[in-house]
Structures are given as C-alpha cells and as structure tokens.
C-alpha cells in the first residue's frame, strides 16, 4: 500500500489539499512514554544538571543583588562624608569602568538583554554564541555591573541579571548529553530565571521569556523554563523573603475620578518612553547618529563623533554631568532610584520630587550612552513613578499612589514594548492586585504609542550587535542550506577580485 493510500484510509487524517503532506495524528503510547520519562537514566542526569545550574543561576543573581546593594551603599557612605566627592569620583569611576569593559569584556556593556536575544540567532555556531553569552561575561557583568553602582550611575540590576543567569545555564550544556536541551532553551530559561530572581516576580519571568526573549519557544522546552524560574525564584525568596519589591502598596481603587488623570499619565509615559527608546537606539547603534542630517541633530552628531574618537574621556564627561544632576537633586537620581520610588509609592516626598522623573530620564540615558554595564529596568520604573507623581500633583493629591503605579507600568511598557511583562512586573512588585486591570490597559496603550515613535529597543540593539559581529568575523550562515553555506565560506575566504583597469 502506498503512503497516500495509507493516509487516506486513516479516519483521523486531515483532508488532503494536495499542497501539503498529510500528517497522521497518533495518540501517545503510555508505556513507551513512561519508560522514556521515568526509566531513562541519561534523561534524569540531564534534568539534574539543568536544575542544579538553574539553582546556581538564582544564587548568582542573589549574589549580584547583594554586591550591587553593597556597592551603592559604599557610594552613599563616601558621599555622606564628602558631599562634593561625586564631582571627582563619578567621572573617574565611569571612565575606568568603560576602559575595563572595552579592553576585557566588550559584550558586557549595557543591560545584557540584547546580548541574550542576539545569541539565539540560528546562524551562530558555538563560538559565536559564546561571543554574546558565556561564563566569562557572567563574571565580568558581576564585577563591572557592581562597579557601576559604586560609581553612583543610574543603573539597574535586573537587565544584567538576565545575561548573568543565561551565562550560567548555557554553561551547563557542556555536561548534557547530545541535543537533549537546545542552547536556545537554556538561554531563554536562564534569562527568565534572572528576571524572576531579580524582581521576585515569577509570573513576570515566565511572560518575559516568551514576550521579549523568544517568540518561538518549543512547547517541549517550556517545562525547563518554568523549572528554572521556580528554582531561581526560590533561591531569591530564601535570601530576601517572600515580599513585594516595593512593599505592600495600599492604592485607592480606580474609579471615574481617575479616568482623565490616568489617561494623561498613559499618553505622556507612552510618548516619553518611545522617545527614550529612540534616543537609546540612535545613540547606541552603529552609524545611527550619522544618518541624522537635520540641523536639530547636529549637536548629537558632534557628541557621537567625540564618543567614537575618545570613548573613555567621553564617559568621564557624562559621569560629571550625572554627578552634577545627582547633587542638584540631593542624591535621588543616583543609583537605580528604588529608594525615591518607594517613598513616592508610600505617599512620602523625596528631595526634588517634581524634577525627579525628568532628571532620572536624563541620567539613565546618559549612563547607557557612556557604555558601562548596567540595566534600565529599575531606572525606567523610577522615571515612570516620577512622571505619575508630577501628573498627580497637577490634578490633585488624591489617588497619587495609583497614578504613580500606572506611570511605572506605562513608561516601562513604552521603553521595552513588552506590555504584558511590564504590567506583571509592576503588579508583583507593589502587590497591586486591585490595580491589575488599570495596569493592563495602561501598559497596552503606552506600548502602542511607543511603537509609533520607535523600533523595538532590545531587538534593534541585538540586530546591531549581530551586524557588528558579522563585520569582525568570517561569517557563514549556518542556518542556510549546505550548498549556500559552502558558497558563503568560499566567498569569505577567497582573495579580493582584481580591480578593472
């Protein structure tokens, strides 16, 4: 009997359209599945290795949290004795961090999320993958990321935790049996575990894995992602306790009086978040500033030239600007901004509260432009909180907490263009279940506004990193058919053709 006859005789077979081969639906064999899942020793060994590395990844993220908190505490202790010290310390420290990053770990710069996205490119071989995510970069991110906190720069620990945890999970591949778990699954599981452990937000970690890190995760690997998140989250809870990041916030239930202020916060955070993402893309991607020929962008092009020509001195100059802003705000814009945001959420007023949002926006962008390792998640939440506070003050003092939380979700969603992750992070960080519908609506609208202004931030930065990798290495597209890959290899290694006379 032919294959077509066999397919057509199957009562469960899909109708044959003539265009695609018919796939028969066969129920699983329970005993065979039981034998493969329970009595396969090599499979159990692989599971133990992956889960052990997930627990280690959670421990490393906890270590990074302790190191970053201690680093910023050291900065606070230094400035407490000499308030003028940031004018000298921050520029020198920023220059030193950038010099070390450029010479020893160039791919540890920035948040680390674009590196994890870039590492999932199917055309990368093992060496190319380790160019973006590796145990070496994990160690560099730990040390240099902590140094950014010691310098008092406007950075967060959550983005770096993604690259840190992904490096630990990916390192487990050397002990796994062949093809048992793909590098793609390990990267996504590690990145999601990093978010879950850093924010103490397991639901946000799951959604972040599928919304931002990977858009085509295979169903058979979803268990690995969830298991990694659970273990990393348990390590974080064991170290810091089962409590919300900003504590329990008693927000007023949303009602009609908050409709117009809430809509204002949504539109403003969507516009400013899209502007922030566009600024990040323009100033951090190769040649983007040079492509802007408007006379309004001439100063930006000049600054970009100085950054390319003297990157360390440029970083020192930005560090000085960040120090001046920090002193002008009595220190609220230094670090991640978590302390000032917590005070706003608890109806307290930090120093320079009205200027906190706009100036935190500026210092976070300047910090990222300097090229130091550091994330933007927590600073973005702080910017959103400041915007929400300012708009709340314009309308009235009532409902401040709700508008501040809405501002956090709106600005983060606009920057990342990942609305589901954003509202879940805010909901879990403030224990804000009464605001869940408002947070969802604000995040979706703010992200939609941002898409009208800017390309996706992390995906664009990842594409730029891949393009730079291709220009620096002999590039063979491993995802292409064998004949095409061989043609690419021969073209890359062939001598240049003679110029016509």
Topology:
Blueprint: H1 3-8, H2 30-38, H3 41-81, H4 86-104, H5 113-118, H6 126-132, H7 135-150, H8 158-171, H9 183-199, H10 202-213, H11 222-240, H12 259-284, H13 298-309, H14 311-328, H15 338-345, H16 353-370, H17 377-395, H18 400-416, H19 419-430, H20 436-451, H21 457-472, H22 482-493
Helix pairs in contact: 3-7, 3-8, 3-9, 3-11, 4-7, 4-14, 7-8, 8-9, 9-10, 9-11, 10-11, 10-19, 12-16, 12-17, 12-18, 12-20, 13-14, 14-16, 15-17, 16-17, 17-18, 18-19, 18-20, 19-20
Short overview:
The protein is mainly alpha-helical and 501 residues long. The chain has helices at 3-8, 30-38, 41-81, 86-104, 113-118, 126-132, 135-150, 158-171, 183-199, 202-213, 222-240, 259-284, 298-309, 311-328, 338-345, 353-370, 377-395, 400-416, 419-430, 436-451, 457-472, 482-493.
Mean pLDDT: 83
Evaluate the radius of gyration. Answer: 25 Å
* Inertia-based shape: globular
Gap between N and C termini: 66 Å
Q: Which runs of at least 5 residues are low in confidence (pLDDT < 50)?
A: 1-20, 475-501
β-strand number:
0
Summarize the amount of helix as a percent range: 55-70%
Structural class: mainly alpha
What fraction of residues sit in β-strands?
under 5%
Number of helices: 22
Largest sheet descriptor: none
In N-to-C order, the SSE pattern is HHHHHHHHHHHHHHHHHHHHHH
């Amino acid at each position: 009997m032919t294959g077509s006859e066999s397919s057509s005789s199957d009562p469960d077979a899909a109708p044959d359209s003539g265009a695609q081969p018919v796939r028969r639906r066969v129920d699983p064999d329970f005993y065979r599945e039981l034998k493969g899942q329970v009595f396969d020793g090599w499979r159990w060994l692989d599971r133990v290795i992956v889960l052990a590395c997930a627990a280690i990844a959670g421990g490393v993220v906890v270590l990074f949290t302790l190191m970053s908190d201690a680093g910023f505490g050291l900065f606070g202790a230094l400035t407490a004795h000499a308030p003028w010290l940031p004018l000298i310390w921050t520029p020198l420290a920023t220059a030193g961090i950038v010099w070390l990053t450029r010479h020893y770990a160039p791919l540890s710069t920035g948040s680390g999320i674009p590196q994890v996205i870039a590492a999932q490119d199917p055309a990368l071989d093992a060496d190319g993958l380790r160019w973006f995510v590796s145990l070496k970069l994990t160690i560099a991110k730990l040390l240099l990321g902590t140094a950014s906190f010691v310098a008092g720069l406007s950075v967060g620990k959550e983005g770096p935790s993604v690259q840190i945890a992904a490096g630990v999970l990916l390192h487990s591949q050397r002990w796994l049996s062949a093809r048992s778990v793909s590098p793609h699954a390990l990267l996504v599981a590690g990145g999601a575990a990093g978010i879950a452990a850093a924010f103490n937000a397991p639901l946000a970690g799951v959604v972040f894995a599928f919304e931002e890190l990977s858009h085509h995760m295979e169903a058979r690997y979803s268990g690995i992602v969830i298991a990694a998140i659970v273990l990393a989250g348990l390590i974080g809870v064991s170290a810091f306790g089962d409590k919300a990041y900003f504590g329990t916030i008693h927000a007023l239930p949303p009602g009609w009086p908050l409709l117009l202020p809430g809509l204002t916060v949504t539109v403003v955070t969507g516009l400013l978040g899209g502007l922030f993402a566009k600024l990040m893309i323009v100033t951090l991607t190769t040649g983007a500033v040079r492509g802007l020929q408007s006379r309004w962008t001439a100063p930006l092009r000049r600054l970009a030239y100085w950054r390319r020509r003297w990157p360390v001195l440029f970083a020192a100059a930005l560090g000085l600007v960040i120090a001046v802003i920090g002193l002008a705000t009595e220190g609220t814009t230094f670090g991640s901004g978590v302390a000032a945001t917590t005070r706003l959420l608890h109806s307290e007023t930090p120093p320079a509260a009205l200027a906190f949002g706009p100036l935190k926006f500026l210092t976070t962008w300047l910090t990222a432009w300097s090229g130091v390792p550091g994330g933007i998640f927590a600073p973005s939440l702080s910017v959103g909180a400041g915007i929400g506070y300012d708009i709340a003050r314009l309308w009235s003092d009532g409902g401040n907490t709700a508008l501040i939380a809405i501002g956090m979700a709106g600005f983060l969603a606009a920057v990342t263009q990942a609305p589901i992750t954003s509202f879940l992070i805010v909901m879990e960080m403030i224990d804000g279940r009464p605001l869940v519908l408002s947070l969802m609506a604000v995040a979706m609208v703010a992200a939609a506004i941002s898409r009208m202004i800017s390309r996706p931030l992390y995906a664009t930065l990842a594409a730029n990193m891949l393009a730079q990798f291709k220009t620096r290495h002999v590039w063979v597209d491993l995802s292409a058919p064998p004949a095409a890959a061989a043609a690419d290899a021969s073209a890359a290694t062939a001598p240049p053709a003679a110029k016509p006379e």
